[in-house]
Structures are given as C-alpha cells and as structure tokens.
From TrEMBL:
Residues 471-488 have a biased composition (Low complexity). Belongs to the peptidase S41A family. It comes from Undibacterium danionis. Residues 471-500 are annotated as: Disordered. This is S41 family peptidase. The keyword Protease applies. Residues 89-157 form the PDZ domain. Coiled coil: none annotated. Keywords: Hydrolase, Protease, Serine protease. Residues 489-500 have a biased composition (Basic and acidic residues).
Length: 500
C-alpha cells in the first residue's frame, strides 16, 4: 500500500477527480519544530466541541464532528488543500490510474455551472446523448450554482449501478433537459490525435495521468506512421486541468533537448525545493523498464510546434506550455491560462484517509511563477472569430477565494460587484447565453484556434487580438521557423542542469 501511495504524492489540478504525482515530502515531521501549540485555542476547541454535543438540536456523531473540524482546518488554507475522507481518497487513486466510477464526462467550470467539454466514448453520458457545450445546472434536483468543481464532481461520482439525475441547459433547447444515468466504471484515455491534413497533425492531451507519457508515444508513432513527413504539430492543452507531475515532465521531455530543466518547485520544506529535468527518472515511476521516449521518431525534436491553451489550461498543462515557451521550442497560441502554479502533496492519515496540502509553488525553466497569473500566449487568439464565447466568463486562479499569491510580482486587485439572482431567472439567463455560444468540438473543422495554429505553421496570416504591452509573453515567438530551433540564451543556460 505504501509504495503505491508514493506514486501519487504531488497533486496537479483536481478538476475531474483529483490527480497526483510521484513524490512525498516529510513536511509533517519538520512542521512540529515550529513552537508549542496554543493551549488557549485548544481549550476553546474542546469547549465548542462540548457545547455542540450537549446543546445542538439533535445528536451529532463524534467522528463526524472531528472529520468536519479537520476538513475545515485544511480547506481554510487555499482552494486546493483538502481533507480526503474514504471516498475522496479512493477517487484520488482511481483518477491517477485513469479509471473511476462515474458518468464519463470531461468537464470544466463555466459561469458557476459544470460545462461538458466532451463525453467519453461508450460511457453512460455518451450513450445518453450528452453533448459538448451542455451545462449541468442541477444534480438530483439540487442547484449546483456556487459549488466548486471538485464538489460537483464528487456528486457525480458514486457506486457502480447507482443512478443520478442531471438537469442540463443546451443551446438548441428552450427548456432544461432532464436525464437519468447509471454510473459505471469508466476508463479514461487522456491522449488523442489525428493527421488534420497532409503534413500537419493534431495531438490533444486532456489530462495528465500515469499512462499519459506512454499513450502519447503510441499516438505520435501512429501519426508518423500515417504521415512520415510531418511539417508541423499542434499540441492541444485547452481545458486540460493538469494532473501528475511526471506526466508533464515526460510530455515536455519528448519535445525538448535531452536533460534540460523542465520545472522547479520551491516551498517551506527542504524536500519541496527541487528541479525536474528531461531525464527518464523524472517521468518514469519506479526503476524497472526502459525509457518510453526512446521509441519516438527523431523528427519529434525539431518539428515546428504550436501549443494551444485557454483559461481551462491549468497546472501540469501550464508546466508543459511554459517549458516549451521558455526554450522557444513552440509558439503558444490562444488565451491566458488558468494560473494554478502550486503543488499539492498527499499525506496518508489512516489506511484510507489523508490530506492534500499545498507544499510548493512551481516555476518555468526561466524562473517565471505561474501562480495566480498563468501562461501568456505568444499569439493571442480567441476561441471563435467573433470572440472568446464562454471562455470570457471563466474564473481563473486569481479569482478564487484564499488563492495563493504570486511570489514574483504583485497581483492586481479588482473589485467585483456581485448581486443575488433568483435561481429560475438565472437558469433562463444561462440558457439564453448557451444559445448564443456554439458548442466546440476540439480538433473539428469548426475549431477556430486550431485553424489559426495551422495558419501559423504554414506561414499564413493569423487573426490576433490586440493585447497590452505589459501582457506580452516573456519570449514571444512569431514564426514556425524560429519555433523549430531551441535557442541558447543566457537565461536558457541558467535553466540547464549543472554537470558533475
């Protein structure tokens, strides 16, 4: 059990289920040296506990009270730290392995609701006709407005063969759609791709899981088998919520020069101060087996690349985009990413419970902090030719309550006026909004950002959006030719490992 848990220590971004990386920190032992515990507050806690037990309107179980106390203590830190009860701990392990019991949907948050990015093929959601762009407004009749994406996903998970009822807003329907589904074991495939046209391929990674690196190698080899003379590759990381850190390092290493630094982390604990390199030991769990990247065609190191990102690009996917951008290995195209630049560590508390706690910030090879800022694209291209659709309504890391600050630069404060809206009126407004926005299937002929990425690879004009100079990328790259050749600058050399 212990060795298995070490395979999901560092957590990326838990949108689908909570997913983890490869190492554990010894934070708990070191934290105890911070001074004596405040006895007065412990006494107050004991008194509050006693009052609830004696005075609350109905009896409350001791275990429930203590569990909720731990949950509140951890969740008060930041949006990504959490106490993991038996159910959450089990789901975390399942998500890491790429399988879970649920409905089979890839989701993101839109305007306070859950948006279907795409149903997984041959899943309950797929068979029920749930479509990309659908918005889930209620789960089992209860409104989900105001829930976090993690809480909404928890409600959709459950035991095999159990039923769940979803209320859905769809752009083509005037009234909400109500559908009842039966949960079942879902096996995810995080990598897909195809040759778009002769010479140009599309590779999409929807989430970073333990099998992602090997799955990516198989898909790239299949693409080259179909078209050995690829002249350009589009790496699609849109709405990729992140995942296991080794997956991000391995995907980056596939395209970068050998042994260069991919990402570094820094936190209070000594073990959190690390640099991860494009070496086998940083993306392959365990000591056995060969290097999956050795099976890739040599051309993958030099083929021109465009990386697609948007507001749903978070954590591990931001690591990949940032590393390829820093080394000028790829042009990043799209809109500003989410900005989740922190690392979570899972500590096991009992045989089937634990805590997920933020232990470090991560940085690109050039030392850029992504936390609460995100990756700025080299080419700012909206989701559609007419604008960014739902993407403009999305929240980012900086919008989350109690988010961790960016330690490299001051954050801009903005006051947002919030008003209470009647639930029924809100659902009507949401349906009207959905009707104006065309559901997008990534990789389709209607994918505007993909079309612009192909234009860039071909040297054709790209439809850009004007951005302020202060928002420009650190190292903007504007041609496929420069993107194909890694640049050795002083900053690049600083990011490389020292030779011993």
């Amino acid at each position: 059990m212990g060795s298995k848990l070490k395979n999901f220590g560092l957590i990326g971004f838990g949108v689908v289920a909570g997913i983890a990386a490869s190492l554990q920190y010894s934070a708990l032992a070191q934290k105890m040296g911070g001074g004596p515990l405040p006895l007065e507050k412990l006494s107050e806690f004991s008194e509050v506990f006693g009052m609830i037990k004696s005075d609350y309107v109905e009896p409350i179980d001791d275990e429930k009270l203590l569990t909720e106390a731990m949950n509140g203590m951890v969740s008060s830190l930041d949006p990504h730290s959490a106490y993991l009860d038996k159910k959450a701990f089990k789901e975390l392990r399942e998500g890491t392995e790429g399988k879970f019991v649920g409905l089979g949907v890839e989701v993101a948050m839109e305007d306070g609701y859950v948006k279907i990015v795409s149903p997984i093929e041959d899943s309950p959601a797929y068979r029920a006709g749930i479509q990309p762009g659908d918005l889930i407004t209620r789960i089992d009749g209860a409104p989900i407005k105001g829930l976090s994406i993690d809480d909404a996903v928890k409600k959709m998970r459950g035991e095999p063969n159990s039923k769940i009822t979803l209320t859905i807003a769809r752009k083509t329907e005037d009234k909400p759609i109500v559908v009842t589904l039966t949960r079942e074991l879902i096996k995810q495939h995080s990598v897909k791709g195809k040759v778009i046209e002769p010479g140009y391929a599309w590779l999409r990674i929807s989430q970073f899981q333990e099998p992602t690196v090997e799955d990516m190698v198989k898909k790239i080899n299949a693409l080259y088998a179909q078209d050995p003379a690829l002249k350009g590759l589009v790496l699609d990381l849109r709405n990729d919520p992140g995942g296991v850190l080794p997956g991000a390092v391995g995907v980056s290493a596939a395209f970068l020069p050998k042994d260069v630094a991919v990402v570094s982390t820094n936190g209070q604990v000594e073990d959190s101060k690390r640099t991860y390199f494009a070496k086998r030991e940083f993306y392959v769990n365990g000591t056995g087996g060969g290097d999956p990247l050795a099976k890739l065609p040599a051309a993958i190191k030099t083929v021109p690349i465009v990386v697609l990102i948007n507001t749903g690009t978070a954590s591990a996917s931001e690591i990949v985009a940032g590393a390829l951008q820093d080394y000028r290995r790829a042009v990043v195209l799209g809109t500003q990413s989410f900005g989740k630049g922190s690392v979570q560590t899972v500590h096991q508390i009992s045989a089937d419970t634990g805590i997920k706690i933020t232990t470090a910030r991560y940085y690109t090879p050039l030392g850029r902090a992504i936390q609460a800022k995100g990756i700025t694209p080299d080419l700012h291209v909206e989701e559609t030719a007419d604008g960014d659709g739902f993407n403009a309504l999305r929240s980012r890391e900086a919008d989350l309550v109690k988010h961790l600050s960016n330690d490299k630069e001051a954050e801009k404060e903005a006051e947002v006026e919030k008003t209470a809206v009647d639930e029924l009126e809100e659902e009507k407004r949401l349906i009207a909004l959905a009707k104006k926005s065309k559901a997008l299937e990534y990789g389709s002929k209607d994918d505007f950002q993909l079309a612009q990425a192909l234009n860039h690879l071909k040297g054709l004009p790209v439809k850009l959006v004007a951005v302020k100079t202060s928002d420009a990328a650190t190292s903007p790259v504007t041609t496929a030719a420069t993107a194909a050749a890694p640049v050795k600058s002083k900053a690049d050399k600083k990011a490389e490992p020292k030779k011993k």
